[in-house]
Amino acid sequence: MAGKANGRKARNGGGEITMSDIARHAGVSPMTVSRALSDPPSVSEKMRRKVDAAVRQFGYLPNRIAGSLSSKRTNVVGLVVPSIRNSLYAAMVQAISDVARANGLHLMIANSGHRLEDEEALVSALLAQRVCGLVLHNTAHSRRLRELLARTDIPVVETGNLPAKPIDMAVSYSNFDAARAMTGHLGRLGYKRIGFVTLPLRDNDRSRERRRGYFAALKELGLPADPGLVMEAPGGFAEGADALVRLVQTHPDIDACFFAGDVLAVGALFECQRRGWAVPGRIAIASFDDLDLLRHTVPTVTTLRIPRQDIGRRSAELLVNRLRGASRQKVRIDVGFEIVQREST
Amino acid sequence: MAGKANGRKARNGGGEITMSDIARHAGVSPMTVSRALSDPPSVSEKMRRKVDAAVRQFGYLPNRIAGSLSSKRTNVVGLVVPSIRNSLYAAMVQAISDVARANGLHLMIANSGHRLEDEEALVSALLAQRVCGLVLHNTAHSRRLRELLARTDIPVVETGNLPAKPIDMAVSYSNFDAARAMTGHLGRLGYKRIGFVTLPLRDNDRSRERRRGYFAALKELGLPADPGLVMEAPGGFAEGADALVRLVQTHPDIDACFFAGDVLAVGALFECQRRGWAVPGRIAIASFDDLDLLRHTVPTVTTLRIPRQDIGRRSAELLVNRLRGASRQKVRIDVGFEIVQREST
DNA sequence: CTGTTAGCGCGTTCAC
DNA sequence: GTGAACGCGCTAACAG
What residues does the HTH lacI-type domain cover (chains A, B) (predicted)? Predict the structure, then answer.
C-alpha cells in the first residue's frame, strides 16, 4: 500500500505524481481531487483547501492525456494552414489562438505547403490525436480527405475561400467576388488595359477563383480579355517586380496592374520607384489583402481589405459554440471584403 | 463477446472503432495490430496484409491518446512564442515545424504576448499535455517557471537570446553582440551622432540586451552616450516614422539611426521618402533582422542578418536527438549574426 | 457533497 | 513471430 517499488525503468526517478498520490496526502479520494481541480464549486471549501495544499506541495500537474482518454474529449484544436510563414495566415492564427486560449483550448498547428496530399496526411494525424475540432485553410480537398471528414463528428471549419457546399462550417470571403470587385473598381477609375498577376494556380482554388473574378469583371466592363495581360508568379518582391516589367515591355499600353498577392504588389511598386515610373501616372497598382505595409509605402497602395482577424475569431467561436453543445448545422459565413482606395490608383 | 451494447451516450453512434475491432476482423490479436501499425517489420508479411486490409476497410485511425497514456510518451512538441503574428517568429516556427514533421512530431503552439505570467501558465498547460519537448522563445523566465522546468525531464530549448546559464539547451545569437556590432559598424562608417530606437523594454531581455550593446559600442567608439538619442517605441511603421521625426527635431545633428526592429526602420525610411530626406545623405538608417523587405526598398536597408531559420532547425534537431536518446547535457549554441551593409548607410 | 467501481484504448512485458 | 495479462492516470456513473 505504501509504494510498490517501481522497479526498472524509473526514468523520472520514481514515476509520475498521480492524482492518487495527491488524494492520499490530502486524505480524500481521488475523485474529490479530480473534482476540486476541474470543477471547484462542486466540492466543499474544506476539501478544496486540503487538495489545493497537496497540489501545491507536490507541484502536481494533472495528466491531460489520461483525462482525455477517460473522458473521450481533448481540449486541442487542430489547424492546417498552407504556410506558417505567410503573415496573412499568421493574423488568422493569432485570432484563433486568442479565442482558443480564452476558452481553455490549445492549438496544434500544421502546414500543408499547399499540397493536398500533405493536408490529407496532416488531418489524419490530427484526428489520430483526437483533436476536438479542426480549422482548415483550404476548401479544395482531396477525395480521401472529404471521406475522412465526412466520417468524423467533430466540428470542422473551412476557410480561405467560400465553398459552394461546405463540409460542415465555413467562414470566409469570396475570392471571386473580391477580384471581380477590384478589377471593376479599376475599370470605373478609367483604366482600360488592366494586367493581372496571379499566384501559382496549381492546387489552389483561391488563386483560380481570383483569376475567374478578374475575367468576369473585364467582361462586365466591356474590356477585351487578353491572356497576355495575365501572368503567374510565385510570391515574392522580386517576382512582383519581374512580372510588372515583363507586362510593361510586352504590353506598353498597360495602364494598371492588379496583383493577387500583396508582396507581389509591393515588389512591383519598388521597381517603379527604381525605374522612375510614376504610380499611378505611368501605371496604377492594386493589391490583394491589406498588409499594414501597404498604407505606409510611397505612394500608399490601393488594396482589398480582407478581415483575416475576424475570420480567425469567428472560426474559433463557431468551434467553441459547437463544443459547448450548439446544434450541428451547416454554417456558411461570408465575412465580405472592402476596397481600400489609396494613392496608387 | 459479440458486442456489449454500449448503452446510453453513444455520441459517435456506436463508440470508437478500436484496435480490438480491427484485430477481430483480421483474425489476429490486438497486439499484432499494434505491431503491424507501429513497427511493420516486426510482423510477418501475412499478418501485416490481413491487418492492413481491415484497417483500410474500416478507415481505422489509431487513438494516439490511448497510445500515449500507455507508452508514457507523446509525439507532441510544445512551442511558446511572444507573438504568432510577427514574421520573425514565423520563420523560426516554420523551420521547427518542418523538422518536427520529418520526424513524426506535432506542434502545439501558444503565444505569451510577451507576458511572463502567461508564459508560465502556457508552459504548465503544455506540460499537462505531456509534451515530449519544449521550445521557448524567451530566456528571462519567471521564478516559478524556472522551478517548473527544473523538475521536468523533457528536453527544453531556449532561444531568442543567449542566456548565460541555459536551463537545458539554448540556440540563439547574442542580442548584445549584435547591437554592439551594428553600432560599431555605423561608427566606423564615420557617423558621429547615432540614434537608437528600441522596442518596449518591459519583460523583454532581448530589447534590454540590444540597448546595452548600443551603449557599449558608443563607449568603444569614444562617442558620448546621450540618453536623448535613445527612444522606446512599440513596433509598427508609424511608430518608427514618429520616433525618427522626434529624434531629428530634438537632435538636428543626428546623422544615423539604428532601429532595433525592422518594421520601425522601414516606417522611418518611408517617412524620409515622404519628407524628401536623403537616406543616407541626411540620415543613415540601420535595422535589425533581415526581413526580405529590406533588400527591396529604395534605398535598400543595412541590417543584421539573424539566421532565424537555422535557429528553428537546430532547436528542433536538438530536441529530436534527445528524444532519440542523446545524453542529457547542457548545450549552448551561438548561431551568430551578420552585418549586411546596404545602401541606407 | 463524497466515495466506489469500472472502464477509456492502447503498449509493455513476459510467456509461448 | 505471436498472444494474454495487466496497467497507464484519469473520469463517468452510480450509490450513499
Answer: 17-71
Question: Does the N-terminal peptide bond of residue B30 adopt cis geometry, omega within 30 degrees of 0?
Answer: no
User: Residues A294, A301: contact at Cβ < 8 Å?
Assistant: yes
Q: In B 61-80, which Cβ lie closer than 7 Å to strand C?
A: 62-63, 66-67, 69-71, 73
Q: Which residue of A has its CA nearest to B63?
A: A128
Q: Is the pLDDT of residue A4 over 90?
A: no
Q: List the domains of chain A with CATH numbers.
A: 1-62 (1.10.260.40), 74-173+309-336 (3.40.50.2300), 175-305 (3.40.50.2300)
Q: Per-residue pLDDT for A219 more than 60?
A: yes
Write out the DSSP string of A64-126: HHHHHHHHT---EEEEEES-SS-HHHHHHHHHHHHHHHHTT-EEEEEE-TT-HHHHHHHHHHH
- Averaged pLDDT, A213-230: 97
Residue nearest to nucleotide D8 (CA to C1'): B70
C-alpha distances (whole Å) from A76 to each of A48, A63, B133 are: 27, 14, 17
A344 CB near a chain B CB, below 8 Å? no
Pick A69's closest partner by Cβ from B66, B129, B270. Answer: B66
pTM: 0.92
How many Å is the maximal CA-CA distance in chain B? 89
- What is the residue-averaged pLDDT of chain A? 93
Query: Closest to A237 (Cβ–Cβ): which among B83, B125, B296?
Result: B296
Amino acid at A222: G
* Sign (positive or negative) of CA dihedral A23, A24, A25, A29: positive
Percent of chain B with pLDDT over 70: 96
Q: Determine, for residues A84 and B90 on separate chains, whether the beta-carbon distance falls below 8 Å.
A: yes
At residue A12, the pLDDT reads 35
Average pLDDT value for chain B: 93
- CB of A69 within 7 Å of some strand D atom: yes
